[in-house]
Specification:
Length: 215
């Protein structure tokens, strides 16, 4: 069935816990796309191989105020080094869809969602990797994101709320003579980033500067 591009949100990504496969209720992690009807499917767009229907998992959603412009889900944080204040933000589109409303009737932009780093042997061989972050422009609220979200915000894609965020990267050291040495390196890099970006609160964001260390 042909669907006009204007009626599809493509290249969306979920880290899990939001959607399940309609056929077996299995948690879904990966790219997905959404039609103006509210229907969800796996794959970056309808032309991907093995496109399967998705449905919303059943999280507990609540609005923070009368202006339903954004929903915040305070679920379990998968990263013990990040506190609850870095909870994953939810786009209100999920809430509207759960209510059977057409998300394209609302002028809503995509917002960053928390992404836990996925390290590879190549990263450890190099001794470092790139971490991606977004900060609310008017608040000291930080969130770690993935490269795909970072690129979308950096490229100012129309379906993203890029104007509300400051984005930046950090080169995170993984290996060294000791956890303490690696911790000192990473803390220094974060402090430099805070000065260069002219932001505050970033140093307090990290709970463990030797996170992901490997001897």
């Amino acid at each position: 069935m042909y669907v006009p591009k204007s009626q599809i949100l493509t290249n969306l990504y979920t880290n899990g816990g939001e959607y399940v496969l309609s056929s077996n209720d299995k948690n879904y992690i990966g790219y997905y796309h959404r039609l103006s009807t509210g229907e969800l499917f796996t794959g970056k767009n309808p032309n991907d191989n093995s496109v399967l229907p998705l449905k919303i998992s059943t999280p507990s959603l609540s609005t923070t105020n009368d202006n339903v412009s954004r929903i915040v889900g305070l679920g379990d944080d998968p990263d013990p080094a990040v506190g609850i204040e870095e909870a994953q933000p939810w786009n209100v589109a999920e809430y509207l869809q759960s209510q059977g409303k057409n998300i394209f009737d609302y002028d809503e932009k995509l917002i960053p969602s928390y992404s836990y780093p996925q390290l590879t042997d190549k990263d450890y061989n190099l001794g470092s990797f790139i971490r991606y972050f977004a900060k609310k422009s008017n608040q000291n609220l930080y969130i770690e994101i993935n490269k795909s979200q970072y690129d979308s915000l950096k490229n100012k894609e129309n379906n993203w709320d890029y104007s509300s965020y400051i984005i930046f990267t950090i080169t995170w050291t993984l290996t060294g003579p000791s956890p303490e040495a690696v911790s000192n390196i990473n803390q220094s890099v974060v402090a430099t980033t805070e000065r260069q970006q002219k932001i505050s609160g970033l140093l307090k964001f990290f709970k463990n500067y030797s996170q992901f260390y490997k001897a």
